Amino acid sequence: MIGLWSVPLLFALPLSLGILSLLVVPAWRPRLIFIGLPLLVAASLDVLAGLATIGPHVYRLGDWAAPLGINLVVDGLAVGMILMTTLVTSLCALYAWVYLRDHPTSTTFFWPLLWFLWAGMNGIWLAEDIFNLYVGLEVMGLAAVGMVALRATPQALAAAMRYLLAALLGSLAYLLGVALLYGAYGTLSMAGLQEVAANNATTQVALALIILGLLLKTALFPLHAWLPPAHGGALTPVSALLSALVIKASFYILLRFWLVLGPEITPEFTAQFLGVLGAGAVFYGGWMAWRQHHLKQLVAYSTVAQIGYLFLFFPLVTNTGPEAQRLAWDGTLMMLIAHALAKAALFLSAGNLILAVGSPQISHLVGISRFRPMSLFSFGLAGVSLMGLPPSGGFTAKWLLLHSAILSGQWWWLIVLFLGGLLSAAYIFKVFRMSFREGPQIDRSVTPPLTLDVTALILASAAILIGLTAHLPLHWLRLGSVFGVS
Amino acid sequence: MDWNSLILLGVLATSLVASGVIFLLAESRLVLRTVVNLTAAVLKLVLVGWIVWGVYQAIEYEFRFTIIEGVDFILRADALGIMFVGLSSLLWLFTTIYAIGYLEKAPNRSRFFGFFSLCVASTVGIALAGNLFTFLLFYELLTLSTYPLVVHRGTRESLRAGQVYLYYTLGGGALLLFGVVALHVLIGDTEFVPGGSLAGLDPSLHPMLIIIFLMMVIGLGVKAALFPLHAWLPMAMVAPAPVSALLHAVAVVKAGAFGIARVVYDVYGIEFAQSLGLLMPLAVVASITIIYGSLRALAQTDLKKRLAFSTVSQVSYIVLGISLFGPIGAVGGLMHLLHQGLMKITLFFCAGNYAETLGVHKISELDGAGERMPATSVAFTLGAFGMIGIPPMAGFISKWYLGIGALEAQMNWVLGVLILSSLLNAAYFLPILYRIWFRKRDRMWCEGKVLGRFETQASLLFPTLFTAAVALAAGILAGMPFSPLYWAELIVGREYLQ
């Protein structure tokens, strides 16, 4: 039956493939993607079809009711995240399939880790109770740390170590919060909590711990220090996956919690405070990105900045009108998805540029527009979305957020969106400026395999296209949320 | 979906597809690239001709789809938009021919022509945009597609110019975005309708509307090079001559001026704008820009720089015409959109011919150029006469209508601005003409290129002569159907006298 068999497959399949990939000979590990990708794409589309036909629903694993069984929530938000994950991960996997041929030692563990990462993420998108969210977080987090360490250089290991510490601290805080909530209310289900949670000290402390843990994992300024070395130093497909998807998972959990508990329990101050931190991230991340000399570090700091926009969600939905709330929801999710697509494209094309000139330095990109136009074109398309210039997903998101900010009378967020856009233009054009310069060097570059360029281009084009066709995805994303009725 | 909406997409697609194909072509595929370029340009011209005929017969052309709830992507051909489309597609064809000749054997031509086509696609999008959102979309795309053209040479100077260009245009674009979003919050999707759609709003919103108007006009004024937002324009002169020609005559500055026309006529409505007291300040700023641009042009020794400041001054005639309350001034301003485009592109083509053929960049080096390059010099003279406003050139007709329009709007001081500006125009153009025609050549020109039968390459000469001829015809045949004057009167009659 449509939409039902495929829901558990979304995490069962990558999990089994992960285990399988540990059992087969190394040469076969990459080839498993040709089994896994089509199946997962089919399963994701089937879940979408299920959402379209029977609407948002709760799927009971093995037909056991909660608290004994596990409930999976299949609403617009979850399905949107699943589709985004499938698209980005599939393309990154194809990229890695070619890219890792030059890194034979890394391939051994890349593929098992990729499958576990995927299983963890899909688990998070679907989980209905807060403990399964924790399990998903840990599976995903540990796989991500492992992937950062793949390069096995001292810097990579140091970055992975820092990442591990941050991830564990974050999970610990989250788990403490979950334990407090379970102790107080005896339920782990989101829906259950929404019914019984009262506004008291326990809930507030629990929520504070959960928010803190998730902020650390999302790398929101000023808790971002682990991110640039981890994302900037990893292998290119890993950087793309981490920046595009992994940090979104913890934000997603935060979003879910906020929708269930936020408005009643947290004071408005918290919402504004999260917004202010977001603004800090936009400014600080943008400024630091502009100052980088290494291409991938620049892209990594750009992630620090872009995360900030997502946090404007909280002040825009707290104590504002329904129209402003709906726009904030639409804008934040559009921003999240557009960033996932654009940032994956940006990392992949940055990786291609680095392969082409054989150096991670931005200053070595002199004249690259002449001989690697396609890599630069993908970089540019992705950059357009990150700068929030039309026509792109980033622009549509910015438009919605601006609209929401004006409607709710919080004009100060306009300044964040205004300056943030200009800052991102500054760091994107820093790369372009170099690429147009005519230097004394002769044209001498390695031509990366076509697959690498094509995957980056597809992602970048998707970041542009989603802005033009935003109507449909936004409609789906609203299914089953409190913003469903407009 | 019927043909009338598909044809609009076709006009946009010709240059968009051409751009994509050219990007993918290898640098060495000269013939194929030229074929793609010219086919697209000719095809577009044919489609535009078709639409012009349709609009003349009052056929509606519209294409729309929903982007997000309450925001549509709309392409629509009305008389005003199609005038701008006609100008850009005609001049695109000639600039393409010119550029193929100009950049012969230069590096990075695939990149150049790819962005060049993208730039025209954005201009056409701006012209056909049916609401503010779509306009904004293409307005920003224009910024992005012109940057690589400005920095094309890759020298330190051009990169610097590109940076300044971005500061101005991205800043302006962001302000425009704010204005558009704010307007959206107030009234929803802001489609362009003749007579505007804001007049019925509650008077308590009027201060807000004034602020929004300011934001939008500043955002548009950057591209229209209104004083004091003009500094990027002379700096951008480091770009190759076809880029200067296209940027100055067609794409960027016109997009700004055209946007101001849209905001005043089709968003606010001329009468409502007048009642808010917005037109007078606009007229003052335009007048200041006219005089200031001319004064700065007087001081330039570099030919392209002088032409650039002349552009700063001349584009403001359009803005001035828009801000004159009354149909005759409007006709003058709108007509000048075409006239200035034709005349200025001729002048830039000529400057490019001098530079390419004789290696001349400074005005002082032009002594005796008329003897060596008579045809180019005749074209330059026609363009310069037009700019000064000597009858029966096109520029005269614009100024005549602007003058009458000023009197009609009871702004007699504008007449003084026009006279002073014409004197200044004469003061900075006549010395050039004197050098070209009456001075004896006093130096060796570095004529590197082997030339054919003509005074310079045919691909440089003929577009120049053609645009000069059209500019001349626009003045002499102003009374004929489909002349710029005729079309401007059609627009004003059809849309602004309702």
Could you explain how this protein is built, in words?
The complex is a heterodimer of chains A (486) and B (498). Chain A has helices at 6-23, 33-54, 76-99, 104-126, 130-149, 154-185, 190-196, 201-218, 227-233, 236-260, 262-265, 268-291, 295-310, 313-317, 322-357, 368-371, 373-387, 393-407, 412-436, 450-468, 471-478, and strands at 57-60, 71-74. Chain A has 486 residues and is an all-alpha fold. In chain A, helix 4 (104-126) runs antiparallel to helix 5 (130-149), helix 15 (322-357) packs antiparallel against helix 20 and helix 18 (393-407) packs antiparallel against helix 19 (412-436). The two termini of chain A are 31 Å apart. The model of chain A has no long low-confidence stretch (mean pLDDT 88). In chain B, a hairpin with a 2-residue loop joins strand 1 and strand 2 (71-77). Chain B is globular, with a radius of gyration of 21 Å. Helix content of chain B is 73%, strand content 3%. Chain B has a domain at 278-498. The interface between A and B is large, with 37 and 38 residues.
Key structural traits:
heterodimer; A: 486 residues; mainly alpha; 76% helix; B: 498 residues; 20 helices; 2 strands
Name the helicity range of chain A: over 70%
The two chains with the largest interface, and their residue counts, are: A-B, 37 and 38 residues
Beta strand % of chain A: under 5%
- Summed up, the helix count of chain B is 20
Number of strands of chain A: 2
Class based on secondary structure composition and strand pairing of chain A: mainly alpha
Instruction: Note the quaternary state here.
Output: heterodimer
Q: Report the C-alpha radius of gyration of chain B, rounded.
A: 21 Å
What strand order characterises the main sheet of chain A? 1-2
Q: State Rg of chain A.
A: 21 Å
- Euclidean distance between termini CA atoms of chain A: 31 Å
Model regions low in confidence, pLDDT < 50 over at least 5 residues of chain B? none
What structural class do you assign from the helix and strand content of chain B? mainly alpha
Mean pLDDT score of chain A, rounded?
Answer: 88
